[in-house]
Amino acid sequence: MPRPRVFVTRRMAQEALDLLATELDVEVWPDDHAPPRDVLLKKTGECVALLTTVEDRIDEAVLAAGHGALKVVANCAVGFDNFDIQAATRLGVALSNTPGVLTKTTADLAFALILATARQVVQGDRDVRAGRWKSWHPFAYTGPDIHGATLGIIGLGQIGLEVARRAMGFEMTVLYYDPVRRPEAEETYGLTFCPDIPSALKEADFVSLHVPLTPDTRHMMGRDYLKLMKPTAILVNTARGAIVDHQALYEALRDGVIAGAGLDVTEPEPILPDHPLLTLPNVVVTPHVGSASLQTRREMALLAARNILAALNGREMPTCLNPEVLDGS
Ligand code: DGY
User: Fold this and answer.
1) Are 134 and 259 contained in the same domain?
2) Active site includes 67?
């Protein structure tokens, strides 16, 4: 009898594929780009499970293409704005993400962007390679100090907290805004709570975004918020591109409203090579690599695989997004 199938939308860590293969027929999309929509719809119709990435839009049409046989979709990502959770719950499909395993790696990258943007690491490298660096000069490539500066964290979830912990090592003052106040984190790490986002933006030398993309946060960092930041401040985004209004950011950077931006995520992704932001020297853009360490990508794939097997075997999924599907409530 043929075994149930799982469609994996990208090549992933072999350990995760091997784990899935203990119980399932595993088909891996061989391209390095997302499967086209028609392929995704067709494969969904043949499978009990999908293992997806942030680029795969799992909406009602895809979920319905499972014709009731699709049981679980596991995102190899902590973010899940590519999922229609309500439709999945209605259609009885369990969803999962990968919180926890990528927290520290993503915080490392947020810090790398703080450092790279402030200290002009990328521009310096470009100039050295192009032969434009001619001599040491007291004013060349100067930027703000990171140590001793004030960091504003917008969204103190797991990743935001890890960024705060790294900031301690740089002797920074850390402010945070989160809808839920975290007195224990304030006490343990000396963080200062801001009752709203504007208070954090006004005080911070560096602002790091760690909120999920929702209708409320889409383009949250627009003209009004950017204007509140200091003209010397640097904005870092490792969350989701659409949280920032890129036209407003471009204008703010061009006009000196803020001093710089380090972006691991953009809108759209990939950002188009002729995007005006890429003409500015005070922007560092990385290709959505917050979780891209070898160990973390392996752990993410394994966690996604474990979620799939748990769902199919009626066991508690390690990180289910809609457990009501499983408990029948
Ligand atoms: C996530 O996990 O949400 C990242 O953006 C993809 O690694």
Assistant:
1) yes
2) no
